[in-house]
Amino acid sequence: MSIAPVKEEVTSAGVDVDPDVPWITLVWNDPVNLMSYVTFVFRSYFGYSKAKAERLMMDVHVKGRAVVSTGPREKMEIDTEALQGYGLWATFQKDR
Amino acid sequence: MARGFRRRGRGRSLAYAASLDPFERHLLAGLLRQVATLLDPGGTLGAATGMPVGDEFDGIVAGLGDLGRADLPRDGSLAGAGGPDPGAHTAYDADDPAVQRLLPSGNRADEEAAVEFRRLTEASLRERKVTNLRTSADVLDAVPEQDEALSLGPDEALTLLVALTDVRLVLASRLGLETDEDAERLHRVAADPGPDDATAQAAAIYDFLTWLQETLAGCLRP
After folding, report:
1. Are A33 and B210 an interchain contact pair (Cβ–Cβ within 8 Å)?
2. What percentage of chain B has pLDDT greater than the value 90?
3. What kind of architecture, by CATH, is found in domain A21-94?
4. Domain locations in chain A as residue ranges
């Protein structure tokens, strides 16, 4: 009876100190990629709504970069590689 | 006179139709193959089934110059390499700014993570790009010589949309385009050529590709 709560405690403590969460994927502004294309990529790769994709695209364009996804490191690496495949200037890093 | 992409039909007959004259089509196919060669000088990756880049194309873009780098051996070999080279699969110019833009660093905050990411992802990323570029060039080369109508299925359209990005990234790098202001200046050069014909021609080609990609991005369903 007492084992389960202890286990749960250990698990949640482990999550709290997990250095791999959260990470972010960033897309940086570049003078080549079209606004329509960047929006298209955010919609088709992430499945984001048109409104969300356009907001992120404008953030990239105006602020120079935008966080386009958040999660565990492995997922951010997959997103980064996929976006680089589309020709976007994508990077991943630890959220700070 | 080219006409941009429009969506035609629906369901199984969905297609993306444009009109390109033979000159424009050959130009685009040639650029797609040049960028593929930049990433894969040995021609060992992807759908390497199409026609080699011929004299006709060389003539068309004489003013543009080679998208490749003069200091890279044309056969893709590493200068001075003797005997079996364990790194032969990376026999492209990793120091070329255009290649660096196509295969950018994955992490700007942590060099160690960036190196690890490159080790894990670069080969497949490069192969995917080369396959995209050569597949699109093959589709264009398969159009009957005098035809102007170009009709792409959804997969072909997406492949070309992405491949156009890589061609424009390389052209932009060769033209020294680094900021949004540079892009506007380039657009003005293309519209009103000055004495530097080579740059004006390259700028006009870049403008043409930008326009073509815009029409395709505008009608593709995500």
Report:
1. no
2. 59
3. 2-Layer Sandwich (3.30)
4. 21-94
